[in-house]
Specification:
The structure is a single chain. Helix 1 (14-25) packs across helix 12 (249-277) and helix 5 packs across helix 7. This protein has 19 helices and no strands. By secondary structure, it is mainly alpha-helical. The longest helix is centred in the C-terminal third of the chain and has 38 residues, at 304-341. The chain has one domain: Amino acid/polyamine transporter I (Up-down Bundle), CATH 1.20.1740. It is 80% helix and 0% strand. It binds 4-fluoro-L-phenylalanine. Residues 24-25, 27-30, 99, 102, 227-228, 230, 233, 235, 325, 328-329 line the site of 4-fluoro-L-phenylalanine.
Amino acid sequence: MEQNSIKREEWNSKLGFILASVGSAVGLGNLWGFAYSSSEGGGAAFVILYIFVVLIVCFPIFVAEFALGRTTKVSAFLAPIKAAGNNWAPLGWLFIIAPIAIASYYAVVMSWTGEVFIMSIFDNLPKNAKESANFFKYISEGNHVFIGQIFSLGLGSYIVSGGIKKGIEKLNLICMPILFAILFILVIWAAFLGKAGEGYNNLFLNFDIKQLTNPTNIRLAFSQAFFSLSLGIGIMVTYASYLDKKSNLPKQAVQISLLDTIVGLMAGLITFPIIYTFNMSSSIKESTIGTLFTTIPTGLGEYGSLGRLMAVLFFGLAYLAAITSMVSLLEIPVSTLIDKFDIKRKYASIYSFILIFIIGIPSVRNISFLDNLDAMAKTLLIGGGFLVAFLMGWVLPRSLETELENSGSSLKTKYYLKFMLRYITPVLVAWGFIISLYDLVNKFSS
Ligand code: PFF
């Protein structure tokens, strides 16, 4: 196997690694996906399923991905092969196809986000529900979408070309504290809106027990959890490959999942009061990927200059959250090119930029293509999660134990994680994956 002759970089600090992982996890998926899946999936029933999936399924997989990355110290594409031989090459392929597919449409959604941000600065937000449909059409159609897509991919590639410490870590050290500050301001502001209570009720309290077994709800909970935590895609494998031998993997996995879930909930505390106060709830019923770009700008656009200021903050926040996720997606093809072909990071970033730009063209042109690619890529992540759990639980249990020992984990933690990764997690993910596939086929054939 090709080995990179350049010494592998490491994160400068533990905080840098945690913020970069949280930066990858927190993104457009939290700001919209969480609230939107919850509104589609019966409020509290979705939240309960989501938290169950994060705790029982995703947490052990998080540790498994970290362990795989740190034990192999190569990029996600090569890690399964290096650890377990050529039979595991398909997992490596999944780890390269999924991030490229997601990055290709993520850049398009970033383009829309950037455009709404600019329009809020220049006071061009829709002022009522009638204007909002045209508004979304305007930001999402036409050649100008390419400008935002190229800018977002270009910015991401530029940062990734700076390397782990000077590119990705530095970006997250700057952006994440700003992001949390804006999030707090918006949550507090939204709490004082007229129908904040009604919004909270709809997000968390409207509990329909039947929804717990509804296949769409189960698919949404699984795919939202994997997508939001950036799991099953090799990012945590890649980020952990730059980690020193001693960091405590389970502890960091807990911190990252917790922060990501808190951000998802906080985003709901912002969007739901806005939606109910400004009577936009009918438009979320027909929820699609575009809803974030119709309901929130319209609600805030009706609310005078304070509303506009909040729109600038909200979409600024969304763009920051997205760029820290985008760099993590780009890091996978970039690190793979470096490890496999021993080329310079700068060229690896340029090649990845070009490839993802081309693959993203259909998503710029056609929103239903984008929507379907999104649903498929998310389901793929669940499959990736299953394979990682199986790999670390059954094929490489010794490496898992060694990594947990290096982490200074207690005997109890070690047994718990090993037990979960062998007997519980794979069964549950397999179940979630099958239900998701079934629901996806229904979605496409209806
Ligand atoms: N976790 C990011 C979000 O919630 O928007 C999106 C994402 C980034 C998904 C990186 C997957 C990934 F590998």
